[in-house]
Amino acid sequence: MERKASRTPRVRVEPQQLQQWYRTLDHLLEAKDKIELALFFRLRDLFSLQVDMVFYDLTSTYFEGAGPPELGANGHSRDGKPRNPQVLVGLVMVDGWPIAHHVFEGNRRDAKTVADVMRDLEQRFGLKRIIFIGDRGMVTSQNLDDLRSGGHGYIVGRNRRRSGEVFDYIQSATGEWTECPVGITAREKAKPPKTRVQEVASNKPGVRVFVVHSDERAEFERAQRVKAMGRVCTRLQGLEQRIKKGRLKAPEKVGAAVARILACNHGHRYYGWSYEDGVFRFFEHPVHFTREQAYEGKYVVQTEEPNLSAVEAVRLYKELSEVERAFANLKDVIDLRPIYHRTDHRVQAHIFVAALAFLLHRAIEKELKAAGLDLSATEALTALKSVRVVEIDLGDGTGKHSVTRGTHRATSVLRALGITDLDPPAPAQPGQTIM
C-alpha cells in the first residue's frame, strides 16, 4: 500500500492523481531495460564513449518502516543505519555517464553482485571485452576468475586487512616512487598533497600490483588513529586505576573488561596488555600497531592489463570517485530518500526515476562545462530557484501570471542550456489530470 498524499507535505496532489502517478511507475519499470539500452546507444554515438572502461560501485538506501518484502533486508549500511531494512543500488558508469543501475537485496554482499552486472553488460549491452574497475569490496577469487574466463580485464582495489598478502605487498614497496599528476581539488590547496605509486613484484603470474601512497589519506588516517588511540588509552587507564584500588581482581573479569575496551575504536589494532601477579599493564601492540602505521596513507591496486603504466592504473582506479559523487548527488541533491513505497516493483521504479534524474543532472553539468561556465549542476539548479512564477489575481475572477527574470547567474545558466521559453504549462482544468 502506498502512503497517501495527505500524510506527507512533500506531495500536494489529490489522492486519485497520486495513484495515477504511481501507476505510471509500473509502466516505466516494464520499459527500464529498453530505455537504458536506448540511452546508452544515444550517449555512445553523441559522445564517443570509451566503452571498454566500465566503472561499478554500490551504495545502500534505507527505509524507516518495513521496506519492500523481498528486496528490503538488513545488511552493511553505508548510511550508518544497520537496524533499518535497506536495498543496495549498483551504478554502472562509462566516461562519467551512468548507463545502467541495478537494485539488489539489502543483505547481499557487494562481491555477489558482480556476476549479475557483468552478465547484463555482455547480454543486454553487447560489450565483448571490457576492463572492469571496482572497489575492494568486489574482489573475490571467483569474480576475478569469471572476468578472466570471459575475456575481460580488471582494475580493482585490494582490502588491506583481509589478506596478509596485501600487507606483504605494502612492506615490499621499498623501491622508487613515481609521482602521480595532481587532481583539480588538490591543486586548489596552498600545499597540494602528493600521490605516489610504485609497482611491486606479484606472487602470481600475469598479476600486476601497485602500491599507492597518498599524503592526504595518510594525514586523515593518522589523525583518526591518534583520536581512536586516545579514547582507548583513557579507558585502559581507568581500568588500570580500578585494578590498583582493588576493585577488580579476578583474572577472568579483568580479561572481559579489557576485551570490551579493545572492541571499541579498533583498540585491538593498537594495544596489547598483560595481567600478572595482580599487576595490569597495557602497551602499544608490537605487531598490530606497527602494521597500522604501515597501512596509513597506502592502498593497493591490482590488474592484469599488461600495457597500463602505474600512473594510468592509479588514475583509472581513482576515477571511481565519480561513482561516489554520483551517489552523493542521488541522495543529497535528487532526494532519493525518503522512499514511501512498500512494494518491490514500486521501490525499483522510484530508484529508476532518481537514476534518470541523475542522468539529466550529469547532462546539465556537461552543457555548463561546454559553455565555459564554472558551475556544478547543483549550483546551477540552486541559481534557477530565483526564477519564479508570480500569479496575479485581477479581482474579477480572472488572473494572469508572469515569470521573474532571476539572477544574473540564473540567466547565464538558462543561456548555456538553451532554454528561452519560461512560460509554465497551462494549469489543469477541473477533472483533468496532468501527467
Question: Which tags fit this structure?
Answer:
435 residues, alpha+beta, 9-stranded mixed beta sheet, two-stranded antiparallel ribbon, 13 strands, disordered N terminus
Briefly, what is this?
With 435 residues, this protein is α+β, with helices and mostly antiparallel strands. It has helices spanning 15-30, 32-47, 114-123, 141-149, 164-171, 184-187, 215-244, 251-262, 288-295, 310-318, 321-333, 344-370, 377-383, 408-417, and strands spanning 53-62, 86-94, 97-105, 131-134, 153-158, 178-179, 195-200, 208-214, 271-276, 279-284, 298-303, 389-393, 399-403. It has 14 helices and 13 strands.
Q: Can you put this structure into words, describing what you see?
A:
This protein is an alpha+beta fold and 435 residues long. It is built from 14 helices and 13 strands. It has helices spanning 15-30, 32-47, 114-123, 141-149, 164-171, 184-187, 215-244, 251-262, 288-295, 310-318, 321-333, 344-370, 377-383, 408-417, and strands at residues 53-62, 86-94, 97-105, 131-134, 153-158, 178-179, 195-200, 208-214, 271-276, 279-284, 298-303, 389-393, 399-403. It has a nine-stranded mixed beta sheet, with helices on both faces. It has a two-stranded antiparallel sheet with strand order 9-10. Strand 2 (86-94) and strand 3 form a beta hairpin. The protein is globular and about 95 Å long. The two termini are 21 Å apart.
List the helices and strands and how they pair.
Layout: H1 15-30, H2 32-47, E1 53-62, E2 86-94, E3 97-105, H3 114-123, E4 131-134, H4 141-149, E5 153-158, H5 164-171, E6 178-179, H6 184-187, E7 195-200, E8 208-214, H7 215-244, H8 251-262, E9 271-276, E10 279-284, H9 288-295, E11 298-303, H10 310-318, H11 321-333, H12 344-370, H13 377-383, E12 389-393, E13 399-403, H14 408-417
Parallel strand pairs: 1-4, 4-5
Antiparallel strand pairs: 1-2, 2-3, 5-11, 6-7, 7-8, 8-11, 9-10, 12-13
